[in-house]
Specification:
mainly beta; three-stranded antiparallel beta sheet; 0% helix; 168 residues; nine-stranded antiparallel beta sheet; single chain
């Protein structure tokens, strides 16, 4: 993930193999898939305005529906799609976790939510030829340098000395 303008994260994370997933092929009219994934280890990262740190906790949650796709090898083989194939408002990509700043070890819980994707593509490989199965593998690119994806990032400092207020 690269931040191209404004505040945000820049990092590169190797992910563990996907354990829980669902892939549903709907005839030739569309396809849906969803999964959760996790990095293999803590991730070095930079957050614009906060500096360098380490992502010590992270989950990636993905749900995508495509209106069109191509599967030239037939059922059970690689499924290809582009950003324009993704059904309107049918892609949910979220990263949640904790960023720990290097220079003072302050913790910043975060949530990154990806917006509409106008450029990119993907390939998902089903585990079997059944219409409902799991993902065997996937490779997806969201956005490009010319047309990046807009993301919304919520991040706050996990303060330990916040006053508890009396309820009257």
């Amino acid at each position: 993930m690269n931040t191209t303008s404004g505040q945000g994260f820049t990092f590169d994370a190797t992910m563990l193999p996907i354990e829980k997933s669902r892939l549903q092929v709907i005839g030739q009219s569309g396809m849906k898939y969803k999964f959760d994934s996790f990095p293999t280890a803590a991730v070095k990262a930079r957050f614009t305005g906060l500096g360098d740190g380490l992502i010590t906790e992270m989950k990636s949650e993905v749900e995508v529906a495509v209106a069109r796709y191509s599967q030239p090898g037939g059922a059970g083989t690689a499924i290809h799609f582009t950003a324009s194939d993704i059904a309107a408002d049918s892609a949910y990509v979220e990263f949640t976790g904790v960023f720990v700043r290097t220079n003072d070890s302050k913790r910043f819980p975060f949530r990154v939510l990806f917006g509409r994707v106008s450029e990119g593509s993907g390939t998902v490989v089903p585990f079997s030829a059944a219409p409902e199965t799991r993902l065997l593998s996937k490779n997806v690119t969201l956005g490009s340098l010319q047309r990046p994806v807009t993301v919304t990032t919520a991040l706050y400092e996990a303060e330990e000395d916040v006053a508890k207020l009396k309820i009257q």
